[in-house]
Amino acid sequence: MNCYDVIIVGGGLAGLTASLHLAMNGHSVCLFEKVNYPNHKVCGEYVSNEIVPYLKKLGVFLDDAAAVEINTLQLSTIKGRSIEVPLPLGGKGISRFAFDDILYRRAKVLGVQFEFKNVTAVTFENDRFEVQTMDDMIVRSKVVIGAYGKRSLLDKNMGRSFIRKKSPWLGVKAHYRLDGFPDNTVALHNFEGGYGGLSKIENGNINFCYLANYKYFKEYKEIEYFNQKVVSKNPFLSQFLETATMVFETPLTIAQISFESKSCIEGHMLMCGDAAGLIHPLCGNGMAMAIHSAKLASENAALYLGTPDYLRERMEIDYQRQWRGYFNHRMRTGRRLQKLLLNPSLSQIAIATVAKSTWLLQKIVEQTHGKPIIC
Ligand SMILES: Cc1cc2nc3c(=O)[nH]c(=O)nc-3n(C[C@H](O)[C@H](O)[C@H](O)COP(=O)(O)OP(=O)(O)OC[C@H]3O[C@@H](n4cnc5c(N)ncnc54)[C@H](O)[C@@H]3O)c2cc1C
pLDDT digits over 236-294, tens only? Predict the structure, then answer.
């Protein structure tokens, strides 16, 4: 078969969630993903509990995968001043290796067709899409969901504006072993030109993931050296790196992480997850937004596919309006926070101020997170 109701490009959290939603609604779905499951991804691996009710509805139970319950946020300044606050909704610690794989296995059960191929072009003509892969496979559909993450060759081919701007952000992640690390805490530690998150995952390992500005990194070039000279200036991170044992052979890295605004409709594709916009990782809400945006895109797509007088134009307008309504405020707050945290003179004052006020930190968390997703 080379014709489906929906084609999804990219099988991270957004794409996999959309595939579950649409397959459960009885639609034929083909999902293209360029890497086999399971696989590791650069991510803080703390997911807000706001997605739990929706995932349950899709038949996905993170507790079965031994996801760790997290209910406390610790924040520290470069000099080691720190504060802890309860997280109102809380979240879970689960690796992307496990999380994406659970969704993948559930999607297979629901009959989603997987093609492990790199999509190179998506064209739209006569109200139909044609999706082409690097090895010249061609598949057609009525709807395409673009869920291919932060940046892809497709963005370049479509002339999306963010891809032309260089981004200084580099992401680094590895799993570590350390006895005595608290189960219930996600920690965010500041260092010059970046910040790092620490939290436990399902197998008892600790994920250490950081975002660093290349301006600071390029002087050191090697991760180990950068960790010693810059990251370890924060006493919490210094102690962690001195006592923990890395489980990965080498850390994973990604460069050119862009936080520019993007459009959530592109060439009539419904974009979701990071392909529609990436919130600053310090907010710890990118995964929840990816899953929530997949829900919105799938609901609109299902309505369009099942209602003759609900036109494509209407679907696109509705999706755009909903996306902005749910996420614009969080994205703006994330941008402001990142600016503040990474301004060397302001960040010390800002974090020192926040470090004195549990109330203020809780307010900030509320501004960057959503409410539980209503099913
Ligand atoms: C440093 C860092 C730390 C973070 N920490 C957290 C955190 O603690 N909590 C949180 O909630 N969020 C965090 N995030 C954000 C979170 O990781 C993302 O928002 C989330 O992964 C988005 O999911 P997605 O499905 O949109 O994209 P992805 O998970 O990136 O999936 C995209 C998929 O598309 C595939 N793909 C790409 N191009 C093609 C193509 N042409 N053809 C076929 N397949 C393709 C890729 O292989 C990939 O599997 C962090 C982000 C960064 C950078």
Answer: 999 999 999 999 999 999 999 999 999 999 999 999 999 999 998 888 799 999 999 99
Instruction: Please work out whether the CB of residue 3 comes within 6 Å of at least one atom of ligand 1.
Output: no
Q: Say whether 244 sits in a helix, a strand or coil.
A: coil
- Counting ligand 1 atoms within 8 A of each CB, the residue from 7, 39, 43 with the most, and so the one to mutate, is 43
Give per-residue pLDDT as tens, 317-349: 999 999 999 999 989 988 888 877 767 666 667
Residue ranges per structural domain of the chain: 3-166+257-368
Residue 203's alpha-carbon distances to 247, 287, 304, in angstroms, are 12, 20, 42
Helix, strand or coil for residue 130? strand
Pick the CATH number of 3-166+257-368 from 3.50.50.60, 1.25.40.10, 3.30.930.10, 3.40.630.10: 3.50.50.60
CA-angle at 174, arms to 180 and 184, nearest 5°: 35
Distance 205 CA to ligand 1 centre (A): 21
- pTM of the predicted model as reported, rounded to 2 decimal places: 0.96
